[in-house]
Amino acid sequence: MKFTDYCLSSEGTDVIQATSSDEKYPPENITDGKSETFWTTTGMFPQEFIICFHKCVTISKLTIQCYCVQTLRIEKSVSKDPVDFEECIEKELQHKEGELQTEEFSFPEIQATYLRFIILSGYDAFVSVHRVIAEGITQDSENQT
């Protein structure tokens, strides 16, 4: 049994949609595994991004590193396409000026092919998402439904 971070581009994970994009801070920065790089929004809320795992994964813990995010909703889908999302959690995050927000969400294991992160509000006009970590146990079987 081995824990894996599924939210890494090296694991084949992609950010397939983001509501805003700045060429200096692209959405792909969320899955590069570094806290120093980030995706930034370009004002107005809600903002969202969708992470695609390219296979169904089982997640036991999600961690997001972000800045100035006030209200966050996380949804999941097990569909072949990014549709039919179900809400996992919605939470108001605490903000400390000048500090990265690190928020951990533990679940009874959830299965997902896609995760949608919706930033409903921020403490500033611009917010940033530095990293998403989706921890799960690697399954030997690829034939999950």
Question: What share of the residues lie within helices?
Answer: under 10%
Question: What radius of gyration results from the CA coordinates?
Answer: 14 Å
Structural classification = mainly beta
Contiguous helical run count: 0
Please state roughly what percent of the residues sit in beta strands, choosing from under 5%, 5-15%, 15-25%, 25-35%, 35-45% or over 45%: over 45%
CATH architecture: Sandwich
Report the span from N to C terminus: 20 Å
Shape: globular
Number of strands: 8
Mean pLDDT: 91
Order of helices and strands: EEEEEEEE
CATH top level? Mainly Beta
The overall number of domains is 1
Low-pLDDT segments, ≥5 res: 140-145
Largest sheet: 8 strands, antiparallel
Examine the coordinates and then state which fold CATH places here, giving the name of the CATH topology: Jelly Rolls
The CATH superfamily is known as Galactose-binding domain-like
Secondary structure elements and pairings:
Elements: E1 3-5, E2 14-18, E3 39-40, E4 47-67, E5 69-77, E6 86-92, E7 101-122, E8 128-137
Antiparallel strand pairs: 1-8, 2-4, 3-8, 4-7, 4-8, 5-6, 5-7
